[in-house]
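Exercise 7. Predict the structure of Thioredoxin reductase from Alloscardovia venturai.
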Amino acid sequence: MTVYPALIIGSGPAGYTAALYLARAGYQPLVIAGALTPGGQLVNTTEVENFPGFPDGILGPDLMDNMRKQAEKFGAHIEYDDVVSVNLNGEIKSVTTDSGETYQARTVIVTTGSSYRHLHVPGEEEFAGRGVSYCATCDGFFFKDKPIIVVGGGDSAMEEAQFLARYGSSVTVIHRRDAFRASHIMLDRVKKNDKITLVTNTVVEEINGDDTGVTSVTVRNVLDDTTSSLDVNGLFIAVGHVPQTGFLKDALALDDDGYILVDRSSTRTSTPGVFAAGDVVDKVYRQAISAAGMGCRAALDAQAYLAELGM
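Solution. The predicted structure, encoded as tokens:
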């Protein structure tokens, strides 16, 4: 069986950047990019306007396609499959995919990212990218002078509401409980913003719209079970993320939320020869550019490890 110098689990900005750096260094890495959504969350994004180097913006799928092609140009190999189990102990690591293939490598970089928690209500999937968004910094600009709703009760929701207040004609924060999980300082900032309204004990029941996108949402008061309709053009869902680390089982040290722990500012995990980058590590920034930067660091950390092995 071929033993690759480096194997990357996942794709997206972190995975493809790591692959590019390792390929240019001559290591010909194997990338197991995923079967359904290779390229990560950006393949479900329309216009990306905050990635450096594209003054006119670029479609998310096009950006990921360009990154993949660039990595392949220098010798990266791409397999479109999902990793279901790993054995990361010892000098030779092995990963097994959903199709039953097993691959071996001396270093492994995990870049499987995280996924947005969904509301799982009618209309959410239908209007994703057409009014329903999970990233204020990505899509807030498109709702200038339009009514916006943010769903969530934590610091992330408050941060998104503050950011979106720069653009929207109004911002309504909807939370299912009577108290917010957000820190006092974040909540105080939101309460002082005249453009933001807080609505508690309320849940979104359905997202409504037409060919132009989202036009309203149906909400329900959980105390008296009454429903009403709110006019809105932008619905931002900020109810948390789920790191894609289930396949690791106990192979790496994770934090309480399931994110991979790394050694200080490096990308080194709890297992020698295994590195991690992107949203599977980063629960704070979650941006394409920061994931790409971390992918670069992971590749350089892996190169240093391989150099110690004399490769």
